Amino acid sequence: MYGMKNSIKPQGCTNLKLRQLTRMVTRHYDGYIAQTGLKNTQYALLSYVVRLGPIQPVDLARLMRMDASTLTRNLQPLAAHGWLEIGAGKDARSRLVEATEAGRVKQAEGQRAWKRAQTALNEQLGAERVAALHDLLDTCIAFLDGHPEGQLGE
To answer: Residue 112 and residue 109: Cα distance in Å, rounded?
Structure first.
């Protein structure tokens, strides 16, 4: 479906176009998520920890495609609010991140805001266009990760 034909010549800079779209979509979600006192990145991080925790920071960073120093910076405010606990792991060098009860409540509040944001975006762009965008993005991510067969069913 998304194979390149020899006659198709992309115009413009893909990076610029993606960054423009990303900024617009981020502003859209920010408008909803901010009502909960969270930033988009904090909501995403909290959601991962609620779903997967307790989890080692290195594993969380890998799953979120985030470098370790960025993850550490993003964990700190969530821990300071009491939404996450960063405790000892299996040995003295390891740590585990886990959501507190207050963190689970905050994540659920963020999820309700996220659902409103997603519904509004689906209405604005059209559900079919959003689904096609998701499919295209998933396929591009798989190709860039070196695993195109995982997305194309080959």
So the answer is: 5
CA nearest neighbour of 32 among 134, 124, 102: 124
Evaluate whether 49 touches 103 at the Cβ level (below 8 Å): yes
Q: pLDDT tens digit string along 76-99?
A: 999 999 999 998 877 767 789 999
The candidate with the shortest Cα–Cα distance to 62, out of 134, 145, 143, is 145
Q: Rounded to an integer, what distance in angstroms lies between the CA atom of residue 107 and that of residue 125? A: 26
Mean pLDDT over residues 53-65, rounded?
91
> For residue 129, is it left (φ>0), alpha (ψ between -120 and 50) or beta?
alpha
Domains of the chain by range and CATH?
Answer: 28-146 (1.10.10.10)
